[in-house]
């Protein structure tokens, strides 16, 4: 009964006009592990998919170019936020800039690449586009993310082309939290069994190409 009520109240069912979707079990909102935990839930028998192993892989893959990217984003949005506060920009612009700044605010305490590599192994490091892309390649999966706040599919850093990954998982992004999405109880898909309503949404909104 509780699962049925959850399905009926889940926004994605109404959005896609398909009653098969449900959020998997709740994960702690305060943890930066939510993305990695959701991936592990979908791949429970894959030893590489534990939260710690996903984080270790990201840490190992981080390089100077990525460190400079993080640093540049932090400095850019920090400066922009200060300017908008001084100019007393409208609330919406200020809110958007603040959200971008907060994604990179951790860099104020990251002086070099080694510190970033260590930070990526801690729950304080939240999965961003870079981390998601590295995880997808590592596990040979594609994460199809639905943005709950915008009520639409999320256009990620990587697209799907002719070389479709081995598996695909569906995730819900609330704006601060990732949760695994099931479809009639299933949480791991190939291109042949991916729900048509989900596939159509990503083709329409993100121009994804499925085999």
Give an overview in words.
Strands 1-5-4-2-3 form a 5-stranded mixed β-sheet. Strand 2 and strand 3 form a beta hairpin. The chain starts with a helix and ends in a 5-residue tail after the last helix. The chain is built from 9 helices and 5 strands, in the order H-H-E-H-H-H-H-H-H-E-E-E-E-H. It has helices spanning 2-9, 11-16, 34-42, 51-61, 64-87, 91-104, 113-119, 129-139, 196-206; strands spanning 21-23, 141-147, 152-153, 167-173, 178-183. The protein is an alpha+beta fold and 211 residues long. It folds into 2 domains: 2-51 and 140-206, no CATH class; 63-119.
Helical proportion, percent range: 40-55%
Major beta-sheet overview: 5 strands, mixed
Helix count equals 9
Straight-line distance between termini: 37 Å
Total DSSP E strands: 5
Write the layout of secondary structure elements.
Elements: H1 2-9, H2 11-16, E1 21-23, H3 34-42, H4 51-61, H5 64-87, H6 91-104, H7 113-119, H8 129-139, E2 141-147, E3 152-153, E4 167-173, E5 178-183, H9 196-206
Task: Summarize the entry for a quick read.
The chain is of the alpha+beta class and 211 residues long.
Keywords:
211 residues, alpha+beta, 5-stranded mixed β-sheet, 5 strands
